[in-house]
Write a structure and sequence with these properties.
The complex is a heterodimer of chains A (419) and B (374). Chain A is an alpha/beta fold. Chain A is built from 16 helices and twelve strands. Helix content of chain A is 43%, strand content 11%. Chain A has an eight-stranded parallel β-barrel with strand order 1-2-3-4-5-6-7-8. Chain A has a two-stranded antiparallel sheet with strand order 9-10. A two-stranded parallel ribbon of chain A has the order 11-12. In chain A, helix 6 packs parallel to helix 7, helix 7 packs across helix 8 and helix 12 runs antiparallel to helix 13. By secondary structure, chain B is α+β, with helices and mostly antiparallel strands. Chain B is built from twelve helices and 14 strands. An eight-stranded mixed beta sheet of chain B has the order 3-9-6-10-2-1-8-7. A two-stranded antiparallel sheet of chain B has the order 4-5. A two-stranded parallel ribbon of chain B has the order 11-12. In chain B, strand 7 and strand 8 form a beta hairpin. The N and C termini of chain B lie far apart (80 Å). Classes of the chains: A alpha/beta (419), B alpha+beta (374). Chains A and B meet through helix 3 and helix 11 of A and strand 4, helix 2, helix 6, helix 7 and helix 10 of B. The structure holds zinc ion (ZN). Zinc ion (ZN) binds next to helix 16 of chain A. Zinc ion binds next to helix 16 of chain A. Chain B: It holds the Pfam family DndB.
């Protein structure tokens, strides 16, 4: 089972100073910063997924996360060198797609097949996904079929299938050595199976299952089951955007050999409670917003409702308290109290006292050997600014990788990093 | 001075300067760490009836940090003083009798730190960030000059506040032209740009450079290429391109000579391939316009990588490469035939990042394609 990590240009600055909250004056983003595979003890993924929409953006929606300069360099150096996977991590597979979720609202995919293949070629990718259009909706066996939706769903399936055909033609016309992947979409188990069958007829041996993010695990399994009826033995399936580690065994039984997801990373700073992973549990991170970076606090200071000086002092006392606790110089209750005092001043809707106490008492970062926690200590558990949040995200990736192997999938490539 | 319920008086040597009839300024030095004890920036706020009681501006933490680091550096000097408006609890006691405009004496400031900040006698009219930086700095003391005036009249205080705070910031171009001659600490945002500003300077002054006297700066108004376009082009390469290789990641300095050599070699080739377009003005030629300069800068980086590998990183090497795209360019007449199948009139590129990217994509694609078919 291969795990692909979707790139969103997330890195950490190894020189960031947690106490002064400063980067080196002359730091250059990305080039001086480090990716997850450069700071973790073990590489947390088998592959990277690069989306055209993240690199190039499209239309009025600028989903692009790349500056013009970074984009040009990506094309110039190609992905392997750009992501610094050209020396010790050469076995990492790099896969490209269009980022269909960024344009699902639009009539049609914003990129032509030729443009997409240009992108894959510029980046020098190993695997390339044909441009697809997501079908949003799923009908279970026996449920009523919403007739008004069917024509739109069929239209999107047609676009996807037609693109898949054109994409294969273009790949062979250009004679590229990229491995083409077709995307199966559907609005029911049977229509997914039909897509798989159609793509196989076109000649695809790698098929990505798209649009499954909102589906329940059972619906995913039923679709995979239906597809098993038509799937050729050599066909390999990839699940786009699916994390569910506990289900991986069931998925694998139906031909799934790879998947991708950002959720272990994003939960670190998007989720309400499950911010910090351990092998068997999750913890909430301690919110210590920056006086200078918290929008609502800034508004209150501007309005004269909160004294800026008092806020700065409370923030400092909170940070110092947490560090003192980590060093064994302050009892947990006192460190927690400082957090709660600051919480009071910032004005939160609901206190997290109990969850914070659980996190602080357990000190999960103390026993973690991911490569981040040893360096960052208690800073990794603070919900505060991207340097800490992304470190926690990287830590989660490391734990996620361990969860996958614990589930019996030992095929994760763990060798090669230190050779 | 320690916290005490007891009000004390702070006496400091001062000079009273009569500037115009009835308008007296007091100049003195005080340890910046004490400023908070008798002056405030937040005195002005909404009162219980929600009427505006003055004006408050939150501290800019980034700015404060920059000043603080400077104060913590080896030999800091801040010549411009803090301006404080005192109410009439503060008084001046002359030490000599004099009828000149300048009289030495002592300024006497009542200090009671147990009082609420808004009741303190002084209001910092100018120097809020410096005051905060001194307060936060890891130094035991930092004397700072103060210019003060005494008035019971709050309108007068506000008037000064507005006057002081409505001066125009320096134009960016002037700042960039001043940077290369500046030693010592610069604020981070400027420190990061120092290297490109220095490089620009070098290009403009070097008689061997195709940019010789052609970059417009405050002291070289005859230049035709905007300094800002050059800075963007150089910054792009220092950050994402070939010039990054000549940068010292620790202190952010760079091998300027080596950088200038590459830049000059490339643009010499550009000027030889497009002589008419190069020796023109931005209005008549998009090559020397911001869009052309920045887009062609990206092409420089693309060519450098290849030429270095082939050991041809010199004017001749660039000349051969730039010639490859000559037919795909319409700098000063005709139309650009873009890959998407669309056409654009020669001058239909503005100095926006979107247009620059379209133009950059075009020249980069032209370069890539010509390499492919060669
Ligand atoms: Zn960890």
């Amino acid at each position: 089972m291969r795990f692909f990590f979707p790139d969103s240009q997330d890195q950490v600055d190894p020189m960031f100073d947690f106490v002064t909250e400063e980067h080196p004056v002359h730091r250059i983003r990305q080039r001086d910063d480090r990716y997850a595979h450069e700071v973790l003890q073990h590489r947390p993924f088998d592959g990277l997924l690069i989306s055209k929409s993240i690199v190039d953006g499209h239309g009025a929606r600028t989903s692009a996360r790349y500056t013009a300069g970074a984009r040009n360099r990506l094309y110039r150096e190609r992905a392997r060198r750009f992501f610094r996977l050209d020396e010790v991590h050469r076995d990492v597979l790099i896969m490209g797609d269009c980022g269909a979720f960024t344009y699902f609202n639009e009539e049609e995919p914003p990129y032509s097949v030729a443009e997409v293949l240009d992108f894959y070629e510029y980046c020098g990718l190993d695997w390339g996904v044909a441009p697809d259009h997501i079908v949003f909706g799923f009908v279970r066996d026996g449920d009523p079929i919403p007739d008004e939706m069917i024509s739109e769903w069929e239209r999107r399936l047609d676009i996807t299938l037609n693109n898949a055909r054109l994409f294969l033609d273009e790949v062979s016309r250009r004679n590229c050595d990229i491995v083409p992947i077709g995307v199966a979409h559907g609005w029911s188990a049977d229509s997914y199976a039909q897509s798989v069958s159609d793509l196989q007829d076109l000649g695809y041996v790698k098929i990505a299952m798209g649009g499954m993010v909102p589906l329940r695990s059972n619906d995913i399994v039923s679709s995979l089951e239906a597809s098993s009826g038509v799937r050729k033995p050599e066909t390999e399936l990839h699940l786009l955007g699916i994390t569910r580690v506990d289900e991986m065994r069931r998925f694998a039984q139906h031909g799934v050999t790879s998947f991708d997801s950002t959720s272990p990373f994003r939960q670190a700073f998007k989720d309400d409670t499950d911010n910090y992973y351990t092998l068997d549990s999750t913890y909430v991170a301690i919110k210590v917003p920056q006086v200078d970076g918290n929008a609502s606090l800034k508004r209150q200071i501007k309005a004269g409702k909160v004294d800026q000086r008092a806020a700065i002092l409370a923030e400092r006392s909170c940070l110092e308290g947490l560090r003192a606790y980590d060093a064994g110089e302050l009892p947990v209750e006192q460190a927690l109290q400082r957090v709660l005092d600051y919480e009071d001043l910032v004005g939160v809707k609901k206190t997290r006292e109990a969850e914070y106490l659980r996190t602080l008492s357990a000190r999960p970062w103390k026993d973690c050997g991911c490569g981040i926690c040893e360096e960052a200590g208690i800073e990794v558990i603070m919900f505060r600014g991207s340097e800490r949040n992304k470190r926690r995200g990287f830590h989660n990736l490391a734990v996620f990788r361990d969860r996958i192997s614990r589930n019996g999938f030992h095929s994760l490539q763990t060798t090669g990093e230190h050779t | 001075m320690t916290v005490s319920d007891q009000a004390v008086e702070l006496r400091l040597p001062a000079l009273a300067i009569t500037q115009s009839p009835g308008r007296v300024l007091y100049q003195f030095a005080v340890d910046g760490k004490l400023l908070d004890d008798f002056a405030t920036v937040s005195r002005i706020r909404r009162d219980d009836e929600s009427a505006v009681q003055g004006y408050q501006r939150p501290e800019s933490l980034q700015h404060i940090t920059a000043i603080r680091k400077y104060i913590e550096s080896d030999a800091p000097m801040i010549p411009n003083g803090i301006v404080i408006a005192f109410d009439d609890r503060v008084r001046f006691e002359p030490s000599v009798k004099s009828d000149t405009y300048s009289v030495p004496g002592e300024i006497v400031i009542p200090v009671d730190v147990s009082e609420a900040p808004e009741l303190r006698p002084g209001w910092i009219v100018d120097g809020q960030q410096r005051t905060a930086a001194i307060r936060d700095a890891n130094v035991s003391q930092f004397p700072i000059p103060v210019t003060a005036f005494i008035t019971a009249n709050e309108e007068e205080q506000r008037e000064q506040f507005i006057l002081v705070n409505s001066t125009k910031p320096l134009p960016r171009s002037l700042i960039y032209e001043l940077i290369p001659g500046t030693t010592g600490m610069l604020p981070p945002s400027l420190a990061r740009r120092k290297i490109s500003a220095e490089l620009l300077d070098l290009l403009n002054w070097d008689s061997e450079s195709p940019f010789h006297w052609r970059i417009q700066t405050p002291t070289n108004p005859e230049g035709v290429i905007k300094d800002n376009s050059i800075l963007r082009m150089l910054d792009n390469s220092i950050i994402e391109g070939y010039l990054y290789n000549f940068r010292d990641p620790v202190d952010g300095t760079g091998d300027l000579e080596a950088m200038a050599t590459v830049v000059n070699d490339y643009w010499t080739a550009v000027s030889l391939v497009f002589p008419g377009d190069w020796n023109s003005t931005p209005r008549k030629s998009r090559l020397v316009h911001g869009a052309g300069i920045v887009a062609m800068g990206f092409l420089m980086d693309a060519m450098c990588d290849r030429l270095r590998d082939e050991n041809r990183l010199n004017v001749d090497g660039f000349l051969a490469e730039v010639s490859l795209i000559a037919d795909s360019c319409a700098w000063s007449s005709g139309e650009w035939e873009l890959a998407s199948g669309t056409k654009r009139k020669w001058n239909d590129f503005q100095n926006t990042s979107k247009d620059i990217q379209i133009l950059a994509n075009h020249v980069l694609a032209a370069y890539r394609n010509s390499r492919r078919t060669r």
